Amino acid sequence: MFLLFCFSFCSTLAVFVSRAHSRGSETVTSNLGARQYALGCYHTNTSFAYEHRLGRADALCSVYMRLRTLFLIYGLSTAAAFAAPYAMTAIENARRKTIPVNSEPPLESAPALQSRGMWSGDGPACSASNGTIYYGDAKQSDGRDPGGNLRPFAHSLRSDFLACAVGNDGTVYLPGVSNNRAWWLNAYEPTGQMKWSVPTQEVCSRPALGGDGTVYLVSRPRSGTTVLIHYGADGSQLWETPIGGTGWHPTAPAIAANGTIYVTAASQLVAIGSGGQEIWRVTVPHSASENVNGLIVGEDGRIFVQVVRGAVAFNERGEKLWEFLSDSQDMDGGIALGGDGTLYLASRFLYALDKTGKPKWEFKSELTYTTRDYFGHYPLIAKDGTIYANSYYDQLYAITPDGRKKWLVSGEPRAVTRAWGQPMLTRDGRLVTNAGWFAVPSGLASTGWPAENHDNSNSRRQENP
Length: 465
Known about the structure:
By secondary structure, this protein is of the alpha+beta class.
């Protein structure tokens, strides 16, 4: 298209110039004839016509040569302008591949992978206080031997168990679809027996659990506004509050230590009181209806929201404290909060942000520039301060609190899809993945917000320090 435009432009210009030259030649020739007549010079009409045609041919040839040169120069410069960014990108990518990333040797050897032949291949979903681990395929195992002695939790379940949560008494809560394709919030006894079931809308979040056995759920009909629903311990609906928004992937509520429930609605953060009343709502910068990936609450009442390029922090009055934006446009990854107030953000790189939002350090996968690897899972924080983070290409890292590589295990065995997946760190120091588990020195931290849903029971509830 571009070359066709240039050819048409030059052809039109050539016709215009030739016509103008023709008119100029006729004028010059007329004046010349008058002078010849006055001087008594005589030329035949044939000779005059021949000279006139010869002059026009020379002029057209000159115009053609100039236009051809102009077109060649313009075409080459345009091609160079188009090709330059791609060439610079290729040069920059080649340069980056030579950059050593975390090239220092690990501080210690990685623990051995404890794998089981009957491993389900589905990652850990939630865990009960007695150590029982529930997996994404609705199976369970003893937490002392993750992946061993797997057994079904409930044969009739058709739900995705990755959205499960476990109460203090062992009750398992699970939103999902029933046999007649209707959507329900189900509560099960630890034995797998149905405790109660209530209908929900098709679009709903994972549940958040109150300390008194109540349940909070963000839900909306296929066509309608989003609401926050509060259920009692027996499944009865206590209240319902409209929060707005029409997103298809609502973020789960986060419960503060004082009982305030925080939810996101489109590009807003909304604070709801324990009685269902709206306290305040503020706009979250750099977010939209589907651009909030994480919502957590600190022990000091600060609220952190992960957006498409970073994270934003608010105080308990809804005032923005700071925002941090990375160079990544990815929504994968997640956030976790250490007991010292450090926020860990997985957004291509792994960032450690202090209480003012300033980076303390950043950590890159060794495959960052060779395969465009990035940290696409939520980081985990152990009691000893170690951060565990898995990348898209299954580079499972243990990272020290000051950002150094403690150890690395590459994704093996490859027979399991997404070898490590989203890990779970148990209280007694077992790092459970899709492909097996590792014995590590320290279990999941009990302060801050050390995992995606605060704890392994997925309560999404902050406790009083």
